Records
---
Amino acid sequence: MAAIAKRQPTDLAKQTFEYAPAPESIDHVKIEPRYGLFIGGKMVAAHSKKRFPTINPATEQKLSEVVEADEVDVDHAVKAADKAFDSWSAISPSRRARYIFRISRILQERARELAVVETMDGGKPIKESRDVDIPLAAAHFFYYAGWADKLEWAFPNRKPRPLGVAGQVIPWNFPLLMLAWKIAPALAAGNTVVLKPAETTPLSALLFADICMQAELPPGVVNIVTGGGKTGSLVVTHPGVKKVAFTGSTEVGKLIQRSLAGTGKRLTLELGGKAANIVFDDAPLDAAVEGIVNGIYFNQGHVCCAGSRLLVQESIAEPLLEKLKLRLGTLRLGDPLDKNTDIGAINSKAQLEKIEELVESGVQEGAEIFQPECKLPERGYWFPPTLFTNVSQSYRIAREEIFGPVLSVLTFRTPAEAVEKANNTPYGLSAGVWTDKGSRILWMAERMRAGVVWANTFNRFDPTSPFGGYKESGFGREGGRHGLLPYLELV
Amino acid sequence: MAPAKSGANGRVEVRKTYKLFIGGEFVRSESGRAYRFDGNVNVPRGSRKDLRDAVRGARGAVAGWAARTAMNRGQILYRAAEMLDGRRAQFIELLGSGRGAHKEVDDAVEAFVWYAGWTDKLAQVIGGTNPVAGPYFNFTIPEPTGVVGVVAPEEPALVGLVRRVAPALCGGNALVVLAPEVNPLPALTLAEVLATSDLPAGVVNVISGFRKELLPWLASHMDVNAIDVAGCTADEVTEIEKAAADNVKRVVKHAPGEMSPYLITAFMEMKTVWHPVGV
């Protein structure tokens, strides 16, 4: 290991081509200096006088100002949704489907604008927002649009009924995609929605409000209120909300679950993770390296299902880590709007501080840190791709969700040990397995206590594919036929 | 209650000591306590430690039970129906010998038979393959949630419990059952049926005792993955839901009489597996 550490992995990076800047143009995007709330089918002035800026984490420049919605605003939104529910749940399902199809089409038509806004507001590389977030969001609406008039075929021997107003709170890592995961199945099932986007990434949801207007979606079917945790809490605890869907940290998920005790509200939670990405000695190493990189450095590691614990079979640990470290040296960190950027900005100052704190704990606890030579821009929030070896299972970096570009490497000898270590976490969202042996893939997949298992791939998503956690990673599924269930009562 | 009395012919009956069922063994409460039920029956008053042992037993058993083939689980549930049917007379007597008692035992047997037939059909009805937009094979299968707490209803004491236990077992979970404080004997006797049905030790554990001494610990136990609250009052449900948040426990509320595959999946997780397709 020492020999590897002494080599300069970035030598290779220096030999590769220099990339000329290739910034995505932003002249076609119009961000308003301030936004109201989307209630009852139009943008309205808020009751709350409190506003807060949303900034570009890559430049620390203010992009716009949004409202911190208060109790009165949330009440207006829920009432608008409640009013719209009667007609939305009663119109012919094929008409409902057509509105949702329209939304999907408009998302495709305005894809580039949405991708740019997503990248400016959240810091993720444009190639990810352009190639992953926005296409998947559009596909999600398209998929669930088709369910709207086929619900009676989805659950044998049961009659599906919508629940009412859904209160939905989403995170900042995939703002528009998480919006799609929440709103598309809710609308298809005949519910109406009050959605609160994350505090640091409200803009794509506000653009989505414009898309709802463009689609002539009936007023009140979708309502969007901006704000922080307090606003989110007002949404989920409002007595008019019949169903709560939350994606975010396990800590907040537990608070929500507790706050809904005794209310009879339906709840689904998609929470944190600490996924194991397991590489066996027969895995094709180059493919595995790409999978590891995609698993933990995709979206700066701001991914609940990120492969943040690499479990590598002892016999191949050395060559694998050597390749991995070389690969880290070639990752391009910088302007998220540059089409060549691999690693963008950390979403917020608070998140950067959390990552720094956990990385520091790793060093303190005795893990060996590796970071490629990597020049960080002067302004904005950045963190270089980081890898820890000599990690014990008890270290915080092996147990806690870091939600940053930080990989903890552990080793194992036998498949049984890999299973034991992989499952040794209160989380259970995802897992990765790399091996050439088919029977071993299925053996491992059976034993992973996780809702999604990627074998010889990682971080793949699709609207037809159910996603969600075991254990403290939450309950309920999003995507596929299973994703309808949380939004229906089966009579 | 008939079993506690002497027979008419003057025969001195051999009475049964009711016990907890933990990890496949019939044991007294570690606390040594009992409470009197129905005049003359001593019912073990299980403690927090008994509950802990039961959860440990269930946790130890769940992987093996979940790994049994669906067919094998079906055979074992069917054997539970056979064992219960073989003890019809005993259960009818326990349930008061009326017409209702006959029907209740019949319904309980039927519940085991019905769910026995679901073990190897559920994955086809509930799971499936997903046509993702890319070169991947992708499928979703239901898997057991893990250790499930079941708060047995007082009424109907036998079929009410069997209709909670059978679907959870069908899915491959291991259970910790809290017998009702009032009318605990059908639940404790059901343990004897399950003990002779080839269920691996620890897959079902039954604890009797005082609700207020046991329920809060079951609800907040960090190694219990789900809890069925069929036998709880509304206030108890609220408290359970608060405590359940400690480890994001699934709280399952279904109508008591319901029989449905959705009750099986209430105690299951959907797992989705991806693999690339290529040469």
Note: Chain A touches chain B through 47 residues (CB under 8 Å).
---
Amino acid sequence: MTAPQNDPVIEFKDFKVGFTARAGQTVEVLKGIDLSVHAGETLGIVGESGSGKSTLALASMGFLKPGLRKLSGDAFFEGRDMFAQSLRDLEGLRGGKLGLIPQSSGQALTPTMRIGPQICEALNLHCDISPSQVTTRAEELLTQVRLPNVPAIMKRFPHELSGGQQQRVAIAMALAGEPDALVLDEPTTGLDVTTQKQILDLVQDLARERNMAMMLVSHDLGVVARCCHRVAVMYRGEIVLEGKAADVLRTPSHDYARKLIDAVPRIKPVSAKAKAAAVPERGTALTLEDVGICYAQPGFWARTFGKAEERPLTVDGINLSLGKGETIGLVGESGSGKSTILKAIAGLLPTQKGAIKVGDDTVLKPVIEQRRSEDLRRVQMIFQNPDDSLNPRHTVAEILAQPLELYFGIGGQRARDRAAELLDMVRLGPAYLDRLPRQMSGGEKQRVAIARAFAAEPEIVLCDEITSALDVSVQASVLELLAELKEAQQTSYVFVGHDLAVVQQLSDQVMVLRNGRIEEAGPVGRVYSAPESDYTQALFDAVLEPDAAV
Amino acid sequence: MADATTHTRTTFLSRWGQILRDVARRPSGAIGLFLVGLHIIVAIISPAIVPYDFKALDSSLILAPPDADHWLGTDALGRDVFTRLLLGGREALLVCALAIPLTMIWGGLMGVYLGLRGGWVDEVAMRLVDAFLALPGILPLMVFVVIFGAGNEVLIPTLAFFFGIPVIRVARGATHDVVARDYVLAARARGHSRLSIMRRELLPNTLDTLMVEGAMRLSWMLLTFSSLSFLGFGVAPPTPDWGQSISEARVYMSLAPWGVLGPMIALSSLIIGVNLTADALAKTLGIDRSRKAVV
Amino acid sequence: MLALLVRRLALGVVTVWLVSVIIFAGVEVLPGDACTVVLERDAQGEVLENCRKNLGLDRPAFERYIDWASGAAHGDFGVSADGQTKISKEVALRVKNSILLAAGALSVGVPLAIFLGVIAGLARDRFADIFVSTAAIFAMTIPEFVSATILVLVFSIWLGWLPAVVLTPADAPALEFWPEFIPATIVLTMVMVAHIMRMVRSSVIEVMSSEFVQMATLKGVPYGRIVLRHALPSALLPAINVVALTVAWLLGGVVVVEVVFNYPGIGRMTIDAISDRDLPIIQALVMLIAATYVLVNLVADLASMLLNPRLRTLRMRS
């Protein structure tokens, strides 16, 4: 793809944004941005959380979040200084010639307005068409974004649509003003991979048809690689590298950018040897036999007056056998039941049928209260979001002391010594003992959570999307740590993930789930090289990688 | 565990010390704390500094206007208004200061327990809570006073019981927010007992909400106490109390307005002080209490 | 949606039933009954027993509860302790007066509170907000008998603009309470405006900082339209429940204000009954007030269910 050259549509010149901190000094969020986007061109802006990429995207529309202010420099749209426009002119441009596709349309669509009126509102504001034509035009727009059954959708409220449909409505709304440029702020975050691919295809087609300039902000290098002509890498409010997508993503000429791009896990081609390699037999760690789980637990009224057997099982027919020191990856789109299975193994959700066995013979009872403490010790869980899984009022020493006291009766100085050892093990060191969770970064917190799980000296560790809340560079080091611990302690992992590359990196077996049933399962080598099911194949096809054909 | 426990205690105290400083840094908190502090000091030292005996009658000086001897004049029985003003907040402060901790302990623990327990116990208990909330305001309190008398041994437990019921609801709601968090799930998955989860995970993390709630309930309890007293269901005469003084002095308001102004200002400033402090505390802790309505 | 509705209705019925049990049991457990109150010192021996027989107090508590509850369900609360007054008739008069007072306060208060709340919320932390919010703290914390006293002192005694107390008898037609009921209405309005306004303010602030308001801004929607079309429908929904609590409070518990202004409503009747220890009247009034509370909240819950698209379109199984 080559980018056509002409006058820039969006342009930043030495643009600085900042806020006044408590102590009175000015903190810069954007530190002198120079950037331009031309008609017919898509510019990708990548960076980790806190790099300022979303602030930059919204600033192109002359908008800063409350508390932020422009310090110096300019932001132009079609030659107009966006921070010198009157409010009325800004209102005309926003949603008119300059459209926004927001991060999560579920939050961005007004919940009390039906879809029809919301689209028509945009048309009335920005198009000079007669009232009778507005509805027709709205229907055309919704058809254009490939929504089915448009008249029915027009009468719906936003919450009645799926995530993908909401995103399509947002796109239609952005198109209402026949824009020259689109700003996309993480447009596919939170969507399933297959939906993500459809949305990106749609946006790309529309951009080509209308010769629009697009500015796409994303933390996902794969998304950027797929759609962008040029890429800018942001780090702490600065653009550290900018250039043609292929150059930036394949041969980055900047240290940070290279680190960032290298850290993205990629699906590796499966070697013939790996395909043939049989898993060594080291005894069984975990067995699931025809397990069925119902996610919605009946409430008091239903249990008293309802008939329990009427409830359909959310997850059913799950069989699994995991060897000692082995890892199984559970993958699938949201709602496929992968986390539900994990919670059932942990005892947080009771199983309705089937059996869960630990080791060769211990059958776990369906709920925690009936399990023996020794059995509980053998299975530990690590959660997705480290901000949520550590008690904010406890220090690291206290957090780690809890399993030690519960399972081994260790307290006092001995617990503190052991906690220090555990911190060494996850490479944090004893300096962290007296810190509170809010005094640590996301990656550090996740390491503490890992240390807490290993404090119990478990045989099986359940990992629930444990890297998805982390930035890619942090994710890489956490995955490395997990692999090391597994080697050292001969622990088995059940690893839930939505990123196929991450799962491949860590797993020996993989199980693909769909609507609570097993779609396909087998050794990683076999499933990744020759998936048997069409659905699995579709999942692989939807994966976007930074160095795929740009 | 000894070491870790001492550490918790210091972090706990230093955290609340910091919160108190932050409250005092807000204008509303500074005014509130000043008013509350002033009232507490006056309540403690007033018996030593009052110029007259609060029950001394002087039939020669009935409804006398303010002068050098009686700074705020005298009331309908010839008692010194200023003396009764200085002493008039002691009962209210004493009763509420004792009843509020009881309220928060009973309501807070019950709410946290129900929030964690769930199931039929929670369902039945909440129906009872709903029923008690439907009982109108201060009427049950008045009934108790009429039957058992207005002694502190009746008022304190009665106030604590009825004020604790809405607290159950608030504590249960706060617990529901915490119970869904992963660190509580993690503790459950490890197999900690319910008591241990309440003590280690739930109480420390609902404490902020409960403190704000306690401060707010205190201002309403003072209001209720003085209303009871105003209506004649509170402190028995001749013990001085602002609510009662206002009720007595209102009758002669057109002749002797000085009798009613003092207690009105004193009582209002105390309740406003508590409320401003509660408001600043809520803002400091990031808890929006204006969404909680008149329950 | 239907299941939700039915469940909510059932909860209301259960609550009212529990209230009736609590009230009846409360009166049973407390020392003394209607006879000991009426007979006072003579309450012993044969006299007491005859009295109990006459009033049916010698029957088992369960039987008496059934009688009382079924009567109450039909609006018949029997007669007062001294056997002089038919409770339902007297109560009906007072209810009319209380409704008059509540209607006066609500018709002024609710629109005013919403207006002030929206203004304060939109002008967050600016002068208008600080002024209105501070005034609200004063209005809701100053005891009603204090604000009432100030009102009387200034407007009745010093300026002579308003009547200080109500002298109209309880059974007078509604119109005759004009202008005597104005001071009471003002005091009540102040308190309720403060509560509702604070809630509306924080709700407006929350909604105005939501993503969909930001999106509407970036869609080019003018500010006025954002507020009216996008923000207020979401922001005012929670106000329904606060208004309901206020209505329940006005219809049931304004004892202090009614006493201060000598207004013949439910509150005054209750306090008189308590002073007289007239248990049948107390039971009847508390039951009535509690039932009103439950009913008003029920209506509010149903209304917000119907007005909130998220709940309205909830299918039987979400």
Note: The CA atoms of residues 106 and 189 of chain C lie 7 Å apart.
---
Amino acid sequence: MDPTATRLINILLGNAESDGVLEFHFPAPEIKFESDTQFALGGADFSAQLDGQPIDNWRPVIAGKNSLLKFKDRLSGSRVYLSVKGGFSIETWLGSVSTNLAARLGGFDGRKLQTGDHIFFRSNGVTGSTANYSISPSIIPHYSRFPTVRITPGAEYELLNGLGQETLLQENFSVTARSDHMGFRLEGKSIFLNEGMELVSSAVNFGTIQLLPDGQLIVLMADHQTSGGYPRIGHVASVDLPLLGQLGPGDKIAFHLIPLAEAEDLAVHLERHLNLLKVGCGTLK
Amino acid sequence: MNMEPRFFSLGENAITVEFANEISEALNDRVLSAAKYLDSHPFDGYIETFPAISSFTVFYDTYRIRKNFSEFETAFDAVKDIILNALEYSALSELGDMRTHEIPVFFDEASAPDLQAVAENHTITPAEVIDLFTSRVYRVFMIGFLPGFAYMGEVDERIATPRKATPRVHVPKGSVGIAGRQTGIYPFESPGGWQIIGRTTAELFTADDETPCLFKAGDTVKFYEVEPV
């Protein structure tokens, strides 16, 4: 849900960017490290403590054998990510360690983690220095409970009536409780096309904003379905997906339209920053 | 038939190539052969192609495209150019073995909550809907939406019904639905906006690494009525 957070903490630990991570919502679990581990947290701030000592997100931390990680308070964001150096030892399925809850397949037995679960690491022991470094705030997404999210026009954007475009770009929308990893149902002023249309199903993307016939919006998220038939009125710029990924029910969004070229520039810019980070962490290949 | 496709952005890392907003076997053939060509001739920055009913979408790494095709102002323009070339070169090649499937369906009220509404919408009886639905052979146009979900068509115009205005939050596993002239089966419980006119016990998706999906694009499917036990 927060692709930048997961990439950042993996890079920080010298992992492959796409190595599997654990995702926690609040209230988050108590974790006991059964061996010395180097790990990093990113995304939401759940006031993490290791053996009673507060630890920050966005820096590598050493956990000694039997140390306990707890999350005391939800300070900001909705999902915190935990990565360990070397990654987790999970059997891949279709080339991934991700979990598909709908299919109940992949990841850790295709299910959410439960008390008592043991998760193994791919590597043994801790290597490398735990330098006193952390990620620069300039590369961390500007999380907010009320973000303005940049979007590019979708195929049906031009078919919105004038009021529709105005509403999309000037009104606020709430994330409703009917939201999950597949998509966020938003609530706000109704938006309509100039005329109704029945679209043949085609691909959608993480960040695609669909317009429902009842005038409300859905923003597709990380586990979105691969295709859809509702009008695509916009697409969230990928650099802003983390802002969405940290939202929960009750949070609000505003949209800001940018040209496609600008969204591309932002994506390129982020990659350059991540490459610099990899150089800094000694992991650029 | 106009074969000039429309290109549009699906976000800055994807481009959709749409032949038409209609269901047609000939266009679907075109889509499947283009997807096959692109998969077998990947360019630097290519991620994957998603073949849909009468369109396909190419996902790419914006950073790598901008880097490797810097003569274009945008990655969109670069990938569009690559696709135009691919469309020229990809002939209507062999699409591989297509299979026929026969799928049993329950049409009782619990399994078919929208059957009555679909019937009323067309001023016919539910039995006539079932008859019109089961007497056709459908082509699988695409796999999408959910793991193993096959979009099939074309449904008889006399029962074709648009999606529901407000999607259901929970559609039971195995539900058989209609949306316009398309039909499909929900492989798991999920949210969904299709009109549910039946339910099957056939398994659409399994954990098999090689062929997790029962159906693939190009296959044909026939439904037949069974009584629930």
Note: The radius of gyration of chain A is 20 Å.
